[in-house]
Design goal:
Rossmann fold, Alpha/beta hydrolase, 8 strands, 8-stranded mixed β-sheet, AB_hydrolase_fold, AB_hydrolase_3, 317 residues
């Protein structure tokens, strides 16, 4: 049964502010214009002294753009511990600018480099293009991280929404590779199945800011071939064997059709003996982390993420 919502003042304010950024029409180009404007609106001034640098990684004859955020401090001799950040946006929106709101403060608070990947977007590039780009970046970092000032033995992969999907898929594909292993995974309201998991998918099918219809649209752009929907690189919950995955932190929003994707993933990790922590943002909506500087419950989610990343980067499951 679908839910009705008595939103907190915090979440109602977030919804109202997001409503200021509606696309002029239903075209993808206008959706991207509106999303980019929303992202700029919710991006605070960057911390003083933060070092921000763009890079191009050459892979198989094409360049993958990256952006690094580093603290205002000398680089450790072995290179910076690193949060490899994969942005959300339904696989069709976002890029290097869209997630400065989280990448910049994490670099300062975790005393780490945060490396954002500008993976190829759908529908111009369908599955598995985004996954392949993220995997290519990880493959390069683990063999030559110091070129970017990264300590390859201290990397945690993180992402929100579609980025959480890519982060989980990357962790599964990274198992057994030569060189350093990932220290951990931090997933923020991740999409982990081709069809969101019940009961949240039913209870919150019409939730504000992300509905089940929205998710079906995003999936159709990214993975138009239904034959791919059981592929764990697209739907990590389809992976039967979770052995060998790195420790996890998963944050979910209570009023989100994707909530139970994250909860199910944590339960399955624990059942496989993998250390996993779950943070449930009470009364929160999908995408809420953008509001962390303005709200108490969103700030609690942000603080839980920072604490988990510090622990994972230090190798403390």
């Amino acid at each position: 049964m679908a839910s009705t919502y008595q939103l907190s003042a915090e979440m109602q304010s977030f919804v109202n502010q997001c409503a200021l950024f509606q696309p002029a029409d239903d075209s993808l180009s206008e959706m991207r214009v509106a999303y980019d404007a929303l992202c700029r609106y919710f991006t605070p001034v960057l911390p003083d002294g933060l070092q921000v640098e763009d890079h191009l990684l050459l892979v198989a004859g094409r360049h993958i753009p990256l952006r690094s955020y580093r603290p205002a401090a000398p680089m450790p001799p072995a290179g910076w511990p690193c949060v490899l950040y994969l942005h959300g946006g339904g696989w069709i929106l976002g890029g290097l600018d869209s997630h400065a709101f989280i990448a910049a403060p994490l670099a300062q608070e975790c005393a780490a480099a945060v490396l954002v990947v500008d993976y190829r977007l759908a529908p111009e590039h369908v599955f598995p293009a985004a996954f392949e780009d993220c995997m290519a970046v990880w493959d390069q970092l683990r063999v030559d991280g110091l070129t970017l000032g990264i300590n390859a033995s201290r990397i945690v992969v993180a992402g929100d929404s579609a980025g959480g999907n890519l982060a989980a898929a990357l962790c599964m594909a990274a198992r057994g590779k030569d060189g350093p292993a990932l220290r951990g995974q931090a997933l923020i309201y991740p999409a982990l199945a081709a069809d969101p998991s019940p009961p949240a998918a039913i209870e919150h099918a019409a939730a504000p800011l992300l509905s089940r219809v929205d998710m079906a649209y995003y999936l159709a752009q990214y993975a138009p071939d239904p034959a791919t929907h059981a592929d764990p690189r697209l739907a990590p919950l389809m992976e039967a064997n979770l052995q060998g995955l790195p420790p996890a932190f998963v944050a979910v929003a209570e009023y989100d059709p994707l909530r139970d994707d994250g909860l199910c993933y944590v339960q399955r990790l624990l059942a496989h003996g993998i250390a996993a922590e779950c943070h449930v943002g009470r009364g929160l909506l999908h995408g809420c982390l953008r509001f962390w500087p303005q709200g108490m419950e969103t700030a609690r989610m942000y603080r839980a993420l920072v604490t988990a990343l510090r622990r994972l980067l230090a190798g403390q499951a």
